Amino acid sequence: MPKSSPMGRRVRAVRLKSGLTQAALAERLQVSASYLNLIEHDRRPLPAALLLRLAHVLELDLKEIGIGDEPRLASDLAEVFADPLFAESPPAEDEIREFAVTVPEVARAVVQLHHAYSAAHASAQTLAAQVLDRQDIPGMELTGLSSEQVTDFLQRHRNHFPELEAEAERVSRDGTVQGEDLFAGLCRFLEKQHGVVVEVRRVGDMNGAMRRYDAEKKRLMLSEVLRRGSRNFQLAYQVGLLQCSAALDRFVRDATLTSDESRVLGRVTLANYFAAALLMPYSDFLGAAEHERYDLDLLQHRFRVNFEQVCHRLCTLQRSGAEGVPFFMVRTDRAGNVSKKFTANAVTLPRFGGLCPLRSVHAAYLQPNSLRIQISRQPEGVTFFSVSRTIRKHRGGFHDPEILYAIELGCEIEHAPRLVYSEGIDLANPAAIVPVGTTCRLCERRDCRARAFPSIQRPLNIDENTRGVSFFAPTSE
Questions:
Q1: Which of 45, 273, 353, 375 is most exposed, with the fewest beta carbons within 10 Å of its own?
Q2: pLDDT confidence of residue 264
Q3: What sequence ranges are listed for the domain HTH cro/C1-type (predicted)?
Q4: What is the DSSP secondary-structure string of 261-323?
Q5: What are phi and psi of 311, to 5 degrees?
Q6: What is the band of 3 on the pLDDT scale with cuts at 50, 70, 90?
Q7: Which of 54, 61, 47, 13 lies closest to 318 in space, CA to CA?
Q8: Where in the chain do CATH 1.10.10.2910 domains reside?
Q9: Distances in whole angstroms, Cα of residue 81 to Cα of each of 75, 88, 114, 253, 383
Q10: How many whole angstroms separate alpha carbon 89 and alpha carbon 397?
Q11: Contact at 8 Å (CB) between 79 and 438?
C-alpha cells in the first residue's frame, strides 16, 4: 500500500480533543467505526468530502485539521532533543515528527518546559558569575523566555489579528487620521478621542526615552530625534494602547503567556501590530503590494513608513480569502543575535541557537544598504527566495553609537515570480541554490564549510592526520 500523508493522525488528535470515541464520531460522519479506524491509522486516505463533513460536524476551521504548524513544531522538538541533556538516548527523527502530529499540545508543552529549563539554567549561570564578581545581585532576568512565549503566541495566531485590523480600519474611516499630514491627524485624534496632548521634546528632556506617556496628565512626549515615519508609528502605537486596551487585555490572557513579563510584552507587540494596521490599512496595503510586485522601497514611500515596518506588515497579510504572499522575516544584529522573527510559511528558524551562517541576512552587513537576493534550500527540501538588507537605528547625537541590524524577508520559491526582485533570475537553476540549515547542531549537511559545531545526527570522529572542508566535516579515503 502506498504511503499516505499523516492526515489520519491529525483526525485522531482532533477527535480526542473533542472528547469523542471512534464510534461516536463515525456515527456523526455516517461511516463505519472500522473505516474511521483505518483512516486514523493512515491505512486509508481521507476523502475531501469526508474532510469537509468532519469540519462541519466538529465546527472546525479546515486549518485545524491541516498541516498547520506541525513542521515547525517538529523542528522545535528536534532542537529540544539536540540538547546534551538527551545525548545518551535522543529520539529518532520519525519519532519526533509523529509526536508533533499525534499530540501537538503535549509536544508544545515539552518545548515550553525545555525553554523554561534553558532560561533557568542560563539564569543560574549568570547568578553564579555575579556571586563570584560582586555582592549586589539583581533579580534573575526572564526576558528571553518572555520573548519566545510571545513569538509562540504570534505563531499560534499566524501573526494575524482580525479584531485589531477591524478597529484600525474603523479609526481610519473616522477621517481624522487621513490626509497628507498624518502626524497632525493622529495628534488631533488622540486629543479628540482620549484627551491626550502630544509634545515633541528635546533629547535632554526625555532621559533616554524615545516616547513617554504620562497617564495622569494625559501627555504624550516624543523625542525630537524620531523621524517622521517613526513619530507617526509611535502616535499610532499610543492610539492602539488606548483604543484597544480591553482587547489587548483579553488577548494576553492566552495560556501561552505564563508570566507578567510575557503578558506586558504581548500587549506591546499587539499595540505595535495595531499601529502598523492603522498606518498601512489592510486592503490598501495588499493592493499596493500586489500592484507593485512587493517593491519594498515603493511601499515605504507610499505609506510613509520604514523598511522594517513594511517587512513586518507583509508578514501579517493572512486574512482569509485575501492573503498576500506568505512571508517569513528575521532580524539580527552584527553578532548574529535574532531579535525578531515572524513566519507564515514552512521556514524553520532556530529557537535556541543562532541562524545558519550561510543565510543572506549575515552577508547583508558586507554591503550595508544594498539588497541581497538568495535562493536557499532547507535540509527537508523546501526552497525559499529571500531578500536581505541592513537598517540603521536613529542616532540621537554625536555620542550615541550607530546601531546596525539586518533583515531577511523570504517566501517559498513558488511565490517568487510575484516579487519584483525575481526579475532576470533563473529560479530553476540548481547551481543558484544555497543549502542552508536550521542550526549546526541539527543540520545534516556534513560537507558544509561553514559548520561551527558537529551535528548530533553524526558522531564526531576526528583524525589528527586528515582535515576536511571544515574541522567537523568527514573525509573519505
A1: 45
A2: 95
A3: 11-65
A4: HHHHHHHHHHHHHHHHHHHS-HHHHHHHHHHTTT-HHHHHHHHT--HHHHHHHHTT-EETTEE
A5: -60, -45
A6: very low
A7: 61
A8: 158-279
A9: 10, 10, 9, 29, 25
A10: 55
A11: yes
Q: Which three cell numbers stand for residue 387?
A: 531578500
The string over 439-470, giving b where at least 16 C-beta atoms fall within 10 Å of a residue's C-beta and e elsewhere, is: bbbbbebbebeebeebbbeeeeeeeeeeeeee
User: Which residue in 71, 54, 72, 69 sits closest to 17, CA to CA?
Assistant: 54
Lowest mean pLDDT among 24-33, 141-150, 341-350, 396-405: 141-150
Lowest mean pLDDT among 63-67, 111-115, 151-155, 339-343: 63-67
CATH of domain 7-65: 1.10.260.40
Looking at the predicted structure, is the pLDDT value of residue 288 above 90? Answer: yes
Average of per-residue pLDDT across 68-81:
76
CATH of 158-279 among 3.40.50.150, 1.10.10.2910, 1.20.1640.10, 3.40.50.300:
1.10.10.2910
pTM, full prediction: 0.73
Length of the chain: 477
DSSP reduced 3-state for 443: coil
Average pLDDT of span 260-266? 93
Listed in sequence order, the residues at least 6 apart from 180 whose beta carbon sits closer than 8 Å to its beta carbon are none
Average pLDDT score over residue span 188-196: 94
The residue type of 231 is R
Phi/psi at 91 (5° precision)? -70, 155
* 122: Cβ contacts below 8 Å, ≥ 6 apart: 144
Residues 6+ apart with CB under 8 A from 227: 394
